[in-house]
Amino acid sequence: MLSTLTSHILVLNKPYGLKRQHVLSKSPSFIKLNPAAASLDEYSLKDAIPALCEIYHTPQLTIVKCPDRYMSGITVLASSDKVTAKFDKCIRRARSEFLFPKYQAVCVGTPKVREKKHVLGIVMEERKDVNIKDRFNEKRMVFVNTWSKNEVKRADVSLLRLHHKVLSSTSDESASLIEVCSSWNRAHCVRTFLAAKLLTPVLGDHIFSARVKYVFDKPVLGDLWNFDHHMQYLPAKLKEKLKVRRKGEELTIPEHIHLSQLTLPGYYRDQQNLVLTCPISSSSAFQYALNTLELSCEEETESGKGSENRGIAEVGFNINVAEAESIRDQSSV
After folding, report:
1. What was the pLDDT predicted at 227?
2. Which of 218, 214, 224, 119 lies closest to 164 in space, CA to CA?
3. Which one, out of 55, 79, 236, 257, has a CA that is 20 to 30 A from the CA of 62?
4. How buried is residue 222: exposed, middle or buried, by Cβ count under 10 Å (0-12/13-18/19+)?
5. Do 127 and 304 form a contact (C-beta atoms < 8 A)?
6. What letter does residue 298 receive in the DSSP assignment?
7. Taxonomically, which superkingdom (predicted)?
8. How many CB atoms lie within 10 A of CB 259?
9. Which domains does the chain have, with CATH numbers?
């Protein structure tokens, strides 16, 4: 079990399906649409903290950064309250300096524009004409291109800054590896952006991929309310490449989205940056799709350029079900 302990923070590569901590309620829709994540339902990262404290000889570890359950990637734990406060300060500074986290995702299809910066407004629309109790239908995210200053002040519109870049794609453009730099990821806005704006839903995303419909295997934007949350549709060419042959086999595909880079500006005493990098290729759950589709990640070298970045911490921690069970048993002793 590999990890990186640097400058009083422990950096892990959290696998897809492992939640931050246990929740009281379980949704049947989650188990139906995310069986790969549901297989880790009895485990949580919080359960492993006592064992990690023993391994690294530290009395305290606090989770300060963790991707959501449907995402893998960089996870940060602080060794003291002072380090936690310092981390939060660096995150606020990163936002003010537009040093946003980077995400890498294997997507269905390839965007028409391979690289572009976006400034979008986000509106959470409610369906008022029908009383629907399904949690998926309570509110839905809508991207807008125009807004007023008053709408932003009233918090009717939230501003989102993104930069997407296609790192690689298949020869027939049936799939691509896309890097997205986003100012925030509340309400799964990165997954929604990839589906609703680029028409390239994340491979294995059985919820937000419903925003995209296909006409003769060509993607088109579907109606905001006129769709059901079922198994993700995969074009015939992509199913052939991934060797998906049996009915319902798409549900076994994990959601291929990954937090790949996090910058902490001014983390060191000399005010130089700490850059944490962990490409999607480091996650074992995504190796099959990356190798089969021949998608490769670019080297994360730009963060090492110049003198403002003192060091880059490469994260190489992966955990599977057996290891999670072992850690849980150790923590309960």
Report:
1. 61
2. 119
3. 257
4. middle
5. no
6. P
7. Eukaryota
8. 26
9. 9-297 (3.30.2350.10)
First and final C-alpha spacing in the chain? 20
As given in the structure block, the two tokens for residue 331 are 């923590």
Residue 104 per-residue DSSP state: E
Structure tokens, 145: 């291109």
Backbone angles phi, psi at 51, to 5 degrees: -65, -40
Q: Model confidence at 224, in pLDDT bands (50, 70, 90)?
A: confident
Contacts of 174 (CB under 8 A, 6+ apart): 108, 109, 110, 235, 237, 238, 241
Q: Are the C-beta atoms of 114 and 198 separated by less than 8 Å?
A: no
* Identity of the residue numbered 125: E
Q: How far is CA 193 from CA 86, 121, 144, 222, in A?
A: 31, 11, 12, 14
Residue-wise DSSP of 123-165: EEEE--SS----GGGSEEEEEES---HHHHHTTSSEEEEEEEE
Give the pTM.
Answer: 0.84
Measured between alpha carbons, how far is 71 from 316 in angstroms, rounded to an integer?
16
Q: Which of 68, 69, 61 is nearest to 87 (CA)?
A: 61
Q: How far is it, in rounded angstroms, from Cα 232 to Cα 226? A: 15
